[in-house]
Amino acid sequence: MAAVLLLTLSAAGRWVRYWPIVFFWLPFSTGVLLLAAFAFDVVTVKLGLHPVEPVPRRRDDLDTFGLIRARRSCRSFQSRPLSEADREELMRAAREHTRPERLVGPHPIRLEYLSAPLTVWPTVGAREFIVAIAPREYDRLSVIDVGRSLHKVVLHATRMGVATCWIGPGADPSSIVAHLGSRFDPSAEHVICVCAVGYRSRFKPLTVRMVELPQRRRLPLASLFFADPGFHTSLATDSPPFSAFRRCYEACRSAPSSFNQQTSRCVGVRNDDGSGLTRFDFYTTTESRYYAPVGLGIWCATWEAGCEALGIPGHLRVLNQEARGVREAPALPRYDLSWIADASMAS
Fold first, then answer.
1. How far is residue 209's CA from residue 170's CA, in Å, rounded to a whole number?
2. Does the domain formed by 64-206 have CATH 3.40.109.10?
3. Domain ranges within the chain, ordered by starting residue
4. Which residues partner with 279 through β-bridges?
5. Is the peptide bond before 330 cis (omega within 30 degrees of 0)?
6. Does the pTM of the predicted model rise above 0.85?
7. H/E stretch holding 286
8. What is the pLDDT of residues 158-170, one digit of tens each?
9. CA 126 – CA 146 distance, rounded (Å)
């Protein structure tokens, strides 16, 4: 424990001759503060001895981009379970966004509600989850559909005032399968990830707060959006016709991803005559079979929500190299699918 180590160091240094006084007070005061924070966390989080927290209010007043900005991963949940009305509304959204006609891939996926004492990290107090299930036989589009569909549910939850936290490597699949019981067929299905849901708590351990700090950093737009499939030239996001999507770029930049690695990339493509916008091609930068395509699905959901808010119609489609006008495709970044504008946009 860091607090004990610092207090021991300061105590030992106090008896060393000519030991500068600052080397005593600095570790001593830091150790005391850490020890106090640890005691506070034990009392408020572990023992739950704190004032009753209210149910967060709905956010129906926010527009789409305000909702995207408001959504933050929750690392500490109240012990209060979701109300029956909130749980039913959340799962209605889950069923709606996993309807076959809403998917990009040909295979069905499922989002199941699970209330169980799963051990997850780095979130505390999580007791309710949405489990994303895809076919056991690997299909990349199904994994993308998981990220895309579940993130639409996450945005709906944010509007409801329900907090969420994407959990991939921090969950034990065998434990999830065991708690699902008869609702899961291990011979035909595969758990892709889970998302913790519940009401946000103001009380969270210092260690969790420290984990959150580096996860707020984001790459600049110039490192995420490009004008060529070779990823040599950054996209002119401030110039027409691409400037019409400026708020979508920022929304995708802030989207969650596994370990906050931001493995998604995008290439903006004009018509052959340069008169308008044709599409955006989406790529992943790693060979990850699950977390990168889930992250790309999150990007797609964010992009679609943003374009709908801006009144720009379009659709997702997988294009071959010829249709994309690409002669040679490198292994990485890997192309996955495109968002195609339904009408060309003038420069």
1. 17
2. yes
3. 2-46, 64-206, 217-346
4. 269, 340
5. no
6. yes
7. none
8. 999 999 999 977 7
9. 21
